[in-house]
Structure to design on (141 residues):
């Protein structure tokens, strides 16, 4: 759905939407609205991971694409290992809503930095639906 978008713009937009749904979660009056906000966060995170890996492989030097993607996934693992205990601690100090506010506040300067320093990536060499179907029908794969 997003393959025609410029990747830097899509990354920043997904990060800003992530900040917005975190504010929505922090202000949620009931469990249903919190659940909707969490679904929005999950969708944004999925999109952020895909775009980040694409950009990492595009921006890496030839032969270093695997390493760049590995660094992205190492960061995801580190965020789980360190972020979850920190979130639990902050929640016990200030309450659960502050976790979501903190994520929103952290996302805003990050989106500005990404907008400022990431180069445009307008060239799209991603295959369309026909390319994916060809890959699925290739027996060795």
């Amino acid at each position: 759905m997003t393959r025609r978008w410029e990747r830097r713009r899509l990354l920043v937009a997904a990060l800003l939407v992530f900040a917005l749904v975190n504010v929505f979660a922090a202000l949620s009056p009931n469990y249903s609205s919190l659940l909707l906000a969490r679904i929005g966060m999950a969708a944004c995170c999925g999109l952020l991971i895909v775009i980040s890996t694409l950009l990492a492989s595009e921006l890496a030097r030839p032969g270093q694409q695997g390493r760049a993607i590995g660094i992205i996934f190492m960061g995801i693992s580190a965020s789980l290992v360190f972020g979850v205990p920190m979130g639990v601690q902050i929640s016990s100090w200030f309450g659960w809503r502050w976790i979501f506010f903190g994520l929103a506040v952290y996302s805003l300067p990050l989106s500005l930095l990404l907008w400022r320093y990431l180069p445009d990536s307008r060239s799209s060499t991603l295959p369309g639906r026909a390319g994916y179907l060809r890959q699925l029908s290739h027996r060795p794969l």
User: Anything to note?
Assistant: The two ends are 25 Å apart (CA to CA). The chain has a mean pLDDT of 86. The helical segments are 7-26, 31-59, 65-94, 97-117, 129-137. The chain is about 75% helix and 0% strand.
